């Protein structure tokens, strides 16, 4: 069985935040909620400065802390490695948010739209029609898309129709997606060739997102 | 009973809708100058819901500008079309008083009333002179961005350009200077092969969109900028230069390469430039007495020969030679002698970059140029010089713009990297031709340069025909229109005042400088018709406003566009923009608006005929006189005409674009054209600029103008201290500006998702100050401060940074909206009110306006 994961090349990422926009539009996430974030930090003292730019999102950990604490089984680990939230089961207790060491989960309390006082735009009407409030949300590796693509016989990470939007649209080609279990996949090869690293391996969650430089 | 956390609380659960339609449709984004980028937009049940790069054909990975990827900007198309603040229909003002804080008293009117009124005003003005009409639209039609505009313009007659830009938003000056040298309307590195970029004052990765990014990671970069911008953060080295001293830095590089490293592309200089031409004591080329052609010195025969004489054995590049009793250095020798004073140590004292760093950069430029090397592409052997120097907008929007751009091109020519593989390319956007501006027929084997003949009295409100001869090539000093409308120089006779301003989208109120002056100027125009989609700053001063379709509601054709702006990579294609959704409000297509106006003014026959000429529409598709055609119908005729009937609108609507594969000759077209016509770049000695300057000086003296000095028209680059050095010492901070990848000038700053995402980029809302400099003044993160220039003051919230010089403040260049919905509520700082608009703060050669300024700061 596949274990889907991502590789992000930090030497290429220049912090344009295109992945954030791709995600926001793909999932119609509400104001204040961004399943993808791009950390951008200045280091050092003038004039010896550098900048760390690092996109972060749910790591879809193999041994996910969020899954362990979820009291209703809303958060679960799928066989293909994707950590999924079933909004129908989520009661909004937010234990998972406390447990996630990466701060990659968001609580959506009440309906919010991008033009306050004007209700949802037609785009938001369509995009939010399956969206519940009072639940936790996060990156799902564009699960709907991936599943539909796989059903058609497409390969995630290779065929766009089965690949997360942030990967498809990244303008520096810093993002890669694929099966970490397959040693011949592009992601596995990149991790091997560039000594890919996970964030905070010391937490022992075994993230499925690897960073290379 | 307390609820268990295991119990699902009641919450709103919407019924999943049944999806009746779910399609992805091709179109394109051309929000910024890097486009057109091929898109696919997803429509679900008649609503646009998603955007992605078009990769329907694997060839697009290579042939499309955006290679199937998109930057953050195209997502704003969805936000824009569904913006609830869009104008719902035509309106007219009822309050004759105009002003920033005055309610225009808008009342709704019918489309007929709106169009009749505008047409009647345009007609009345045109009967006097078409130049009594101002417009924002003049050049846009050329780019295929606005299909019916060019026929309208040609049928109506020339109009006065009146736009924003040429300031904190756009460089402008580079266009005429780059064009003068190598047809480079906009210069950019050949990124497919480039390995080393010296980036001076540019945030090229932030402003370059997809084409500007996909290839950059391959190149090693050194960024010279007062600010540690996004590009600097991906660079090998950051050299924080003092603002306004770029000319000194660039001159010192020329000095080090010629005098210390003594390594330059001699073959290129000898064959492709005017370097071997002999320069006489008058500063002009020494000419052959009989045929009046420039002379070079043949070292083998030890005598002067005309530059194109057959049998020149070895032309001297350096040295001084005696011709008819006068001592004449070669142009290269003249440069060498001239730059001897511009040493690394000299520049270090001015720029604060160490002499060692200057020498390192010069060495790296020379080493990476691989002088003498060639590369084979598709079986064709070409010079290979994978090195370039990128100059950014703040270096262009400087009164020394011409000197800076000239230095850049001289450096590139020393490296032999002009218009060759991996090097420096000019770019333009034209139909069916890449090498716009490169035409044989200039003096002494150089490309032909057209300049305005001196025109007196001035015929336009920017006075370009009188003051800026090189603006014949491209562009106008728009900012001077505002100055002249309010307060023209004494004894400078202006043409009759404009009567109508026909404005589409562009917003001079937020995109020039001195907003008070711009407002005062606009108030002098009796009638303003604004075509726009929300109530913005300029529309608030309009008399009539009509709403037009936004990008996802309309047709457009990028017709046989040849393009290499931004990435130095040639692109050729015909692309269709098409309505993804039905119009959301009672708006109309700008193209159909033009047709309606043409009909109502009474120029429909000429207008229709212009389509046949401009778009080369063939029988049986030609537009007939006396008939109004829908824009969609016209596009179908264009598609069929240009593809010999094989691809009509229907085909383009399904496929999006026709992108031909380009030959090596097309990819390096300027190189091949220069070689084929035995042309030479006018470097390093711009004799024609000097001569044009002398002629201008004589003409200005003749008509008694003393306030427009012409000493900037130099053949060789000279260091002239920045105007900023003349300001009183109390103004102790430079203010510069920068872009981020998310916004295009101020086009999409009213899109709330982009606004939210932009917050991830540090310092984009605030006033960025060096942490140490702020601490020394007791200023802390989040403090509100005033920034005061000799012109005006603005307030802003402080963000501290280590990535900025202690004498510099950064303000993002996109803001300043006080009327545009959403954008007006973000409270972001804009530097426009700090920047004066006047003659003194204008480069007399390139016409660009100085946009970097100095301020004093204090707590608010």
Keywords:
heterodimer, A: 213 residues, alpha+beta, Alpha-Beta Plaits, three-stranded mixed beta sheet, 21% strand, B: 860 residues, Barwin-like endoglucanases, seven-stranded mixed beta sheet, 32 strands
Description of the molecule:
The complex is a heterodimer of chains A (213) and B (860). Chain A has helices spanning 18-27, 65-69, 95-99, 122-127, 143-151, 165-169, 186-194; strands spanning 4-9, 37-45, 48-56, 75-77, 83-85, 106-108, 135-137, 175-179, 209-212. Chain A is of the alpha+beta class. Chain A has a single domain, classed as Alpha-Beta Plaits. In chain A, the strands form four sheets. A three-stranded mixed β-sheet of chain A has the order 8-1-9. A two-stranded antiparallel ribbon of chain A has the order 2-3. Chain B is of the alpha/beta class. Among the domains of chain B are: 600-644, no CATH class; 723-859, Barwin-like endoglucanases (Beta Barrel), CATH 2.40.40. In chain B, the strands form nine sheets. In chain B, strands 5-4-23-22-21-6-7 form a seven-stranded mixed β-sheet, covered by helices on one side. In chain B, β6 (133-135), α4 and β7 form a beta-alpha-beta unit. In chain B, α5 (173-182) packs parallel to α15 (401-414) and α9 (246-261) packs antiparallel against α12 (344-351). The longest helix of chain B has 18 residues, at 111-128. The interface between A and B is large, with 63 and 70 residues.
